Amino acid sequence: MRIILLGPPGAGKGTQAANIVEKYAIPHISTGDIFRKNIKEGTELGKKAKEYMDQGLLVPDELTCGLVADRISQDDCKNGFMLDGFPRNIAQAEQLDKYLSEAGTKLDKIVNIEVDKSILVGRAVGRRICKSCGATFHVEFNPTKVEGICDKCGAELHQRADDNEETVSKRIQVYLDETKPLVGYYNKQGIVADINGDQAIEKVFADIVDALGE
Ligand code: ADP
Ligand code: ADP
Ligand code: ZN
After folding, report:
1. 150 annotated binding-site participant
2. Which residues are noted in the entry as AMP-binding (predicted)?
């Protein structure tokens, strides 16, 4: 199964991704995670990506499309994958379609998680992520048992550098301008499943499973 997770910052893509990859046994490919790993390791790619990420802007396509093509050409993606945070604009979607058709395959489903703009900022600003295993929590909506400590592995939590009110607002605007048009793009292919993301985490996941099939 080849899936794309679409939705504004804070919609719950990463949270649902963890459930989806477990159920469907496909790799989770998050371009945001790949960039953050590069920043942490101090690579050239990381240095360039950080300039854009700190401002809430999209990293240029030249730095993004090639790395996704490389990743999905690896062996573990043969039977499917889930892209989270890619594509982010029409040009990226077109490049992905071209790559997949050359490889003789295509996308199965776009999981489009919809959440009203008014609640997105609070979601992203309260987000906390495990430094070690990457699990995502929320100070209010999905709190850990012990404050600041990951429920899954016991490591410390941290806050993403770009999860402040100003950058989040910018990212939401960038989503509306550049990424949301992808819903229309994929609707033409008839593969979009709209999911109400303003429900309990478990209910959102149940709706996703309904859309993808058991
Ligand atoms: P995205 O990857 O789309 O930016 P995340 O999955 O990281 O979103 O979720 C953003 C924040 O909102 C996290 O702190 C997460 O714990 C919380 N969250 C995710 N889904 C829900 C939900 N259905 N209801 C309330 N909070 C949620
Ligand atoms: P969120 O789902 O909360 O918006 P992500 O982790 O997906 O966060 O993305 C964080 C940042 O990484 C984005 O604001 C952008 O700067 C960069 N980024 C991630 N994926 C892409 C992409 N496909 N194209 C361009 N920039 C990207
Ligand atoms: Zn952890």
Report:
1. yes
2. 31, 36, 57-59, 85-88, 92, 160, 171
User: What is the model's pTM?
Assistant: 0.95
CA 58 to centroid of ligand 2, rounded, Å: 6
What separation in Å is there between the alpha carbon of 11 and the centre of ligand 1? 6
Label each residue of 15-76 as H, E or C: HHHHHHHHHHCCCEEEHHHHHHHHHHHCCHHHHHHHHHHCCCCCCCHHHHHHHHHHHHCCHH
Residue 157 maps to a domain:
no
Residue listed under structure tokens 């050359």:
102
The reply to whether 52 falls in a domain is yes
Q: Whose CA is nearest to atom 9 of ligand 1?
A: 12
Which residue segment(s) compose the domain that 202 sits in? 2-116+166-212
Strand order in the sheet with 127-130: 136-138, 127-130, 157-158
Query: CATH number, domain at 195?
Result: 3.40.50.300
57 is in an annotated binding site: yes
Any ligand 1 atom below 6 A from CB of 167: no
